[in-house]
Amino acid sequence: MQTQPQVSFDDLPIDEAVRDAALDHIAELERYSDRITGCHVVVAQPHRHHRGGNLYSVRVDLVVPGSEIIVNREHHRDHAHEDVFVALRDAFLAARRQLEDHARRMRGAEKAHTPRASGRISQMFPLQGYGFIETADGREVYFHRHAISDEEFRVADIGTPVFFSEEEGDEGPQASAVHLIHPRHPRGATFKEIP
């Protein structure tokens, strides 16, 4: 870590055992990721109850390249958080999950959602169980009957407009998640022509 981690207490007396526990949690995060450049932890008791125990809240601010991860754990009804060490544990578990998500995004491992394309069925071979879709740019993309519901495969015909996702198959591009475009507009409504 480039800067010394900070543990502070908001309107609470300083508790060295709590500070040491927070520093241990920070060290554990650092073993998980060496990309953390700064960390600030704030322990507070924002909701003081006259009946029952006081609930702790823990805020963890992590600075990582290109981002800041903020976890603010206030559990108004979670009586387990009457124990400051449980509140610390839960806040750092949440921080670790966010740190893992950030690491995946930085690696580009977040699943990219394939945009849906539109086209028209150009060829159908119902007995063989496949067909082709003509895309807006004039290419033909293969689709198998398993890429479309049985009901839609039965009613699909040449010229039927469709939405689909394109992926690379063993023998070139193929369509997956094929859906017929059904015009469901009120009477008299006009709808846009699909290229």
Please give the structural blueprint.
Blueprint: E1 6-10, H1 16-32, E2 38-47, E3 55-64, E4 67-74, H2 84-107, E5 117-125, E6 130-135, E7 140-144, H3 150-155, E8 161-169, E9 172-180
Parallel strand pairs: 1-2, 7-9
Antiparallel strand pairs: 2-3, 3-4, 5-6, 5-8, 6-7, 8-9
Helix pairs in contact: 1-2
Put the structure in a nutshell.
By secondary structure, this protein is α+β, with helices and mostly antiparallel strands.
What does this structure look like?
With 195 residues, this protein is α+β, with helices and mostly antiparallel strands. The chain has two domains: 6-107, Ribosome hibernation promotion factor-like (Double Stranded RNA Binding Domain, 2-Layer Sandwich), CATH 3.30.160.100; 117-180, Nucleic acid-binding proteins (OB fold (Dihydrolipoamide Acetyltransferase, E2P)), CATH 2.40.50.140. It has three helices and nine strands; from the N terminus they run βαβββαβββαββ. It has helices spanning 16-32, 84-107, 150-155, and strands at residues 6-10, 38-47, 55-64, 67-74, 117-125, 130-135, 140-144, 161-169, 172-180. The strands form two sheets. Strands 5-6-7-9-8 form a five-stranded mixed barrel. A four-stranded mixed β-sheet has the order 1-2-3-4, with helices on one face. A hairpin with a 2-residue loop joins strand 8 (161-169) and strand 9 (172-180). It is elongated.
